[in-house]
What we know:
Radius of gyration: 22 Å
Helix content: 10-25%
Structural class: alpha+beta
Bound molecules: zinc ion
Amino acid sequence: MIHVVKDMQLSKNFRLSEFVCKEGKNEVYVDMKLINKLQELRDYINKSIEVVSGYRSPAYNQAIGGAEDSRHMYGDAADIKVKDMKPLEVGRMAEQIGFDGIGIYDTWTHVDTRGYRARWGDWATATFDKVGTTDIVYADPLSVYGEIVKMAGNKITGDFVNGGFYELSTMTPISPMVVNGALLIKRLAHDTVRRGTLIIYRDGTVQVKMIQDIDKEESLSNIHFAISGFNMFPLNLSAELWPDDISRKDWRTVMGYNPAKGKIVIAVRPDTTAERGKKTLVNLGCDRGIGLDAGGSTNARMNGKAVRLTDRVLHNIIRW
Ligand SMILES: [Zn+2]
């Protein structure tokens, strides 16, 4: 137990005073594993993190009705808030950073470094379906996010689909991706085709637009997530036909928006031409959508099951 005499900087963005027990006795105990992970999360989100509750003395924990063996008493837990982000969204990112315990609450996210995995709260934002050979996920727009992975598809854990195209000779991703207002993948010189870009704004609305360079046409700070693929609809499909080499029948991932359900729809199916992919999304109630992936590297794991996995290296993926 340290009785705080002076505040001190624990990492680039966290100070000891932020973790002091709210009981008013100026008591604090912090595990640096927690601080290091929080700093990683802070860097990943690139927004400031408010620590709502850090260390709790056993007496204080009992007084506020905390869990009997609450990690807050061990100094390796924090309840956190990030402005303009839902607790679930923060939780999903904490998962990527590798926190052990993550709990989703109405207005905050609990994270800890207890040494083993624990999850609680409402994580169920996605529902799954399978119609014939088509695997489908329905996800809340604001729970969708993207990640740079640079890892073989069959080595990636958790649920995902792979994202954009690569330039094959250099394996450089060329399909723009925006995550939390940051342009993670820029459009590279490849062709002059204006891509169909699916954009999820921070207010949860979803659009598909034909754009060339997203950072020149949209205010990135308003964007929760965006990815470019092949334009499908509502814009004129003939404005960008899927090139011949990928219009051949093969496994494809298509991603659209069902306005009646307010859900992002992701579908993976075999023998899929551009027309078949579009028909799939229309059948699933979508009025806008794009085709993902350049060809042959369709990868997806849904609801814990491998839909399609390869040992090809994926550069970017989409999760929900
Ligand atoms: Zn907590």
